[in-house]
Amino acid sequence: MEKSNFRRILMGLILVIIGGFLLFSHLDIIDIELPRYIYSWKMVLVVLGFVLLLSEKNKITGVILLLIGGVFLATDVFDTSLREVLKFVLPLFLIVLGLIIIFKRGFSGRRFAKSRDKLDAIDFINETNIFGGTEKAIKSDSFKGGQVTTIFGGADIDLTKSNLSDDTNVIEVQTIFGETSFVVPDDWTVKLEATAIFGSTSDNRVKKIENMTTNPDKLLIIRGTTIFGSIEIK
């Protein structure tokens, strides 16, 4: 069995088991009285984060949702204040983040470290920005997509010097407490399929270009998640 299929089946089984257990408990088929916080929005974030953590492309989003939901859920589980929970969580978060900065290659700690004056001749983009940012211009005759991850930072990607490939062109975007923007040619058709959680996604080309017409054969799909941030098409 392929790894992706195994993860999909595992996620499905977890959701079925959790949903079935809650349903049977509510119908008194299972004689177990569950605490009230089990049915709270905090638990929803924890479960969703766990599911995303098992996926292939949304691990960072899963970790963030687990962290947010877990912190608020801990106040109910341990009957304490948010401040007391943060006294433990914040130091651990800083330690883990510090280790990531030390050992993770390709970490970007500079704000807009690259200039648009320099064109990157690449067909795939792979950008990771943590507490930093990137401004990049790409020149490609067959741009296929890629991945952009921004956490507490920004990414500004200029694709106006590029042409799309004939295949399916997808950019996976994860933006958490940050901004990710793409400047694309006026005739490209862009499908923005990102999910915003306390954030926003927008295609601002319509505002600046009157009677804008796009070519359906030049299709770029932008997928992903933004939490307390934004994904923007310019």
Task: Describe the 3D structure.
- With 234 residues, the protein is α/β, with parallel strands linked by helices.
- It has five helices and eleven strands, in the order ααααβββββββββαββ.
- The protein folds into two domains: 3-103; 119-233, no CATH class.
- The chain is 35% helix and 30% strand.
- The strands form two sheets. A six-stranded parallel beta sheet has the order 1-3-5-7-11-9. It has a five-stranded parallel beta sheet with strand order 2-4-6-10-8, with helices on one face.
- The longest helix has 24 residues, at 3-26.
- The chain is globular.
- Mean pLDDT is 78; it is low at 105-117.
Annotate the secondary structure layout.
Layout: H1 3-26, H2 41-53, H3 59-77, H4 82-103, E1 119-120, E2 124-130, E3 133-138, E4 145-151, E5 154-158, E6 169-176, E7 179-183, E8 188-197, E9 200-203, H5 205-208, E10 215-227, E11 230-233
Parallel strand pairs: 1-3, 2-4, 3-5, 4-6, 5-7, 6-10, 7-11, 8-10, 9-11
Helix pairs in contact: 2-3, 3-4
Form type: globular
The number of strands is 11
pLDDT averaged residue by residue: 78
Please report the number of helical segments: 5
**What strand line-up does the widest sheet have?**
1-3-5-7-11-9
What would you call the structural class?
alpha/beta
